[in-house]
Amino acid sequence: MRFFSDNAAPVCPQVMQAMAGVNQIDTAYDGDRWSKSLDARFSELFECPVRALWVPSGTAANALALAALCPPHGGVVCHRDAHIQNDECGAPEFYTHGAKLMIAEGNGAKLTPDGITDVIDAIANDVHRIQPHAISITNATEYGLVYAPDEVAAIGALARARGLGLHMDGARFANAVAHLDCHPADVTWRAGVDVLSFGFVKNGAMSAEALIFFDTALADLTLYRRKRAGLLLSKGRYLAAQLLAMLEGGLWLANARAANAGAALIARAAGARLVHPVQANEIFLRATPEEAALLRARGFDFYDWAPGEIRLVTSWDQSAEAIRPLADAVAAL
Amino acid sequence: MRFFSDNAAPVCPQVMQAMAGVNQIDTAYDGDRWSKSLDARFSELFECPVRALWVPSGTAANALALAALCPPHGGVVCHRDAHIQNDECGAPEFYTHGAKLMIAEGNGAKLTPDGITDVIDAIANDVHRIQPHAISITNATEYGLVYAPDEVAAIGALARARGLGLHMDGARFANAVAHLDCHPADVTWRAGVDVLSFGFVKNGAMSAEALIFFDTALADLTLYRRKRAGLLLSKGRYLAAQLLAMLEGGLWLANARAANAGAALIARAAGARLVHPVQANEIFLRATPEEAALLRARGFDFYDWAPGEIRLVTSWDQSAEAIRPLADAVAAL
Amino acid sequence: MRFFSDNAAPVCPQVMQAMAGVNQIDTAYDGDRWSKSLDARFSELFECPVRALWVPSGTAANALALAALCPPHGGVVCHRDAHIQNDECGAPEFYTHGAKLMIAEGNGAKLTPDGITDVIDAIANDVHRIQPHAISITNATEYGLVYAPDEVAAIGALARARGLGLHMDGARFANAVAHLDCHPADVTWRAGVDVLSFGFVKNGAMSAEALIFFDTALADLTLYRRKRAGLLLSKGRYLAAQLLAMLEGGLWLANARAANAGAALIARAAGARLVHPVQANEIFLRATPEEAALLRARGFDFYDWAPGEIRLVTSWDQSAEAIRPLADAVAAL
Amino acid sequence: MRFFSDNAAPVCPQVMQAMAGVNQIDTAYDGDRWSKSLDARFSELFECPVRALWVPSGTAANALALAALCPPHGGVVCHRDAHIQNDECGAPEFYTHGAKLMIAEGNGAKLTPDGITDVIDAIANDVHRIQPHAISITNATEYGLVYAPDEVAAIGALARARGLGLHMDGARFANAVAHLDCHPADVTWRAGVDVLSFGFVKNGAMSAEALIFFDTALADLTLYRRKRAGLLLSKGRYLAAQLLAMLEGGLWLANARAANAGAALIARAAGARLVHPVQANEIFLRATPEEAALLRARGFDFYDWAPGEIRLVTSWDQSAEAIRPLADAVAAL
């Protein structure tokens, strides 16, 4: 059974159905009625006027967001273990035309105001040094930890004080909100986030993420950058439809809750083996190679994260019943 | 009725079905069995070993192709009316890191060896001038003309003689092959084409184009560029499935033939109004504003191409019966 | 005798002396007293507050100027024969990260409002097309013609009306001002120019051009771009000294007048052979290959510009006496 | 007295004289006889065929070198304290079009094979990770330490084994060779270095560094990149003349020996205060703010490097007599 990555999960039936529902003649690119409705629908969700653009991947969303916040000669503070630093083959550098990621430290891939100031206060304010222009945080983090609204707000306040933009990589934003049980606004614009990569693909969509601009002035130029990057798909209505289906009836939140619940089940079974608290849908636990082999022999598929450490990721489609065997197997180790 | 663009057509049922057919758990990115089969399937189609990468848009395919053929300090010869020059918001410049498109002339957006040498022979061979590194042609062209194998071969021979790469923008490659009734190899690698953007989205697919490397050595670096551009979708199997469905039973060719047939019907009706011979699925015809208004009043939707000139595009899903009313209306003008 | 290019002329004695005069210990980069005085000295010259940066080449000045005026996804309107289009190996594309030069036409490499609107009015205002962000004109032009203040002002008014920045490539700005006998402000900021590449190297300096920002807000970011491009030389005082020496006592204008006077002498001798009116220090004249060979046989060095056309360039160091033999030889053809 | 930076030193009389010696009419750019002689002169110096290009700054030399060794989607391993990482405002990222600097550790800003493999072995070989393409080391390092031939050779062997290019930032290469008392070939190409930024500006030149390609195949493309960056100065003969003057009679080595000797004098006085062994012309020593103030009060100018640590740099023009007072003052602290 797959616990390798939520990327590998199937697409949610409601999303498949919504795509079939727009399989008709309509205007190309983002001129169709569904694409045009995204601003309104996401503004409603976030209770403030936003600009919402579909993009076909989370890497594209992140890179476009950073390009909107940071000039080529600037820097973006992020965590050493951030996806933008390690897993996007330099997409931020490509889209920003060479901006530099400035590495900060923090437990569980979480940044703190102190960790950020450690980095930026060490940068002399002269033209020889790349100057910071933005901060990027991931919620939930790469280790499945969740920033609470006040934690984001503290970083948001620092960003404003220093004149930096704030981006949130929300590849698992839904899982974070599900864990926090807060309004999505509380952990984004109300806490100072300027741009959000709102992930849907890991959570039931097929090929559509939402790039949300709370600083709406940044959206217009991004339309050009999206086109220029080959990301403005001509049949954009199929992407819009995915997002609308995920918003409909709170599907995005329900799916995330399901994935989180599965992770919680495993976490309880893992107990002291846990490397990080489990707050979203990722579980990092200590396991010897022998133990890992044992789990694999029982049909569970997952990632060897580090020596003596494995990563399990649950998905929207895995019920408690489906997960129980893994939980039991982990408990029995 | 829509004659605005083949981009606006619906997705072909076989493609929708194929996507549903891969809606299961599988490896992410391009590690799934369908993505992995593309090299073999396209090699079979082209009767030579090729590397075939899915990409979500034609603009992305073109830009990645040019980046593989031309360094940042180089130039790409293309027609003044080429899509890469006019309709991609600078994607070639973005992906190549600033290479220059070198504008050549030719009737019906078609390049000729003479038109190309006019451009490149005027470039002094010194470091002050950007040097040409590649040629890009579009088949069928932006005006619906089709390069025959010997026309491509003449350009291919020139390219080889001058040490230039040859890219074919095949957004409507299927329509070209349908018109030529030749083997797809005849008008590509056998004629000297190094890289082909093989379009499927205008022809019945949803969000997958194929980037075909006949010069297979260029493919490996492109894998990095594709990822770095945010184009390596995590659920790549849904893109692979689209391409496989389009290849299955020659659907790509059948669809293109249908679209071409519709265009031929209108072309016959248009007679002397035609601005260009109709070879693929685009019809450019002379029409006064009043005539255009008349057609629109009868429910036909299309593009005003230039003063006194309109563009009609037929699609895979339009039967002869569906098109007859437009043909009649055009004849009656 | 050299009439090949003013680039090949020696450095003016006053400039050599000024460089010797700063050959002492001082702060590095642009922190020295001479570099720091540039803003004030050029503000005085232009009778308005400007920011003035030394850069080591005209290509660098132009490219930095365009990068300040145009985003990566934008376009710059320039003449088909502009230096930035033909002779800088893509420096504008490199510094702007891929902006596009949009080619306009005009006699003698001179743009007009009509020639510019022909280009920009043809660009649909959508994300598929690169949008114009700036205009670049060269004064004196690549063919030695000079824009008068009202000609620049007409373009400046157009630029403002369309929200475009206006750059002047002034590689031979001094020659233009000498010809116009106007205040340098009249043909720059008073006529709507935002950024000027003020050339000194062709006019007696060694390795220092001035990049003048009339729109001073653009200067700060350019400081970072200059450093990032490796153009912030550590011993910058030797560049500042060159510029200060050229300003001292109006040397820049005196040198340009000398060069222009030489050109006028040849122009009078050339009479009906002239391809363009001679207004600055370049002479383009019709000459058969035999005539060209004859001139060369008499020791005159110059450039074959086009079939049946040669280019002669006079320099600051060539006195009327030195030039007379060439004038006589031309007259005798 | 200045111990702030060798950048602030005057230009060597022989260099000034050489520049005056080429103040005559000659071909522009790098077509003059002096520029053309550089390949031969540096090939002689290094006892192997090299390509030698003048560039006006060390930052430009480094960035061009890295662009020759690393594609936009690649990475360059360098030390956390490398000049390319901290002091060039992102020039490597600009010239490489967004390659990533991969930070390695090592005492005194010195890399070791182990420090490098720690970095590159942690990078999974897939398209999600930026892959290393080059290593860049600085000799003498940013802390004044010198890599001996065998130390470079160990890194060179690693580079070859892993298919990586090897760049040496030799801003103070002369000081390194002076310390090692070895042949310049021993610590460069014989040890596996592909490209060397050979610094002259800190050592008596004005505005010319040499970019040396031991892998001569890389030089041709760099000619285009140099032009494209605005670095191909039109009066290039004044740069060539500087380099030739520095080579003449081993001036480069004599100057470096003088600077090193001064540093050694201070090092002996500093004794246990030294933070790093003094091998070239930089001295890092522990000093309280009061002690630093005391030195400054006596007229010595220098850089506060870190809390409780100051940096003193000696230059080619400072004789033992000139330095003695500082040495005495340090000893008396």
Automatic annotation (TrEMBL), chains A, B, C, D:
<dbReference type="GO" id="GO:0016829">
    <property type="term" value="F:lyase activity"/>
</dbReference>
<dbReference type="InterPro" id="IPR015424">
    <property type="entry name" value="PyrdxlP-dep_Trfase"/>
</dbReference>
<protein>
    <submittedName>
        <fullName>Threonine aldolase</fullName>
    </submittedName>
</protein>
<dbReference type="InterPro" id="IPR001597">
    <property type="entry name" value="ArAA_b-elim_lyase/Thr_aldolase"/>
</dbReference>
<keyword id="KW-0663">Pyridoxal phosphate</keyword>
<dbReference type="GO" id="GO:0006520">
    <property type="term" value="P:amino acid metabolic process"/>
</dbReference>
<comment type="subunit">
    <text>Homotetramer.</text>
</comment>
<dbReference type="InterPro" id="IPR015421">
    <property type="entry name" value="PyrdxlP-dep_Trfase_major"/>
</dbReference>
<comment type="similarity">
    <text>Belongs to the threonine aldolase family.</text>
</comment>
<feature type="domain" description="Aromatic amino acid beta-eliminating lyase/threonine aldolase">
    <location>
        <begin position="3"/>
        <end position="284"/>
    </location>
</feature>
<dbReference type="InterPro" id="IPR015422">
    <property type="entry name" value="PyrdxlP-dep_Trfase_small"/>
</dbReference>
<dbReference type="Pfam" id="PF01212">
    <property type="entry name" value="Beta_elim_lyase"/>
</dbReference>
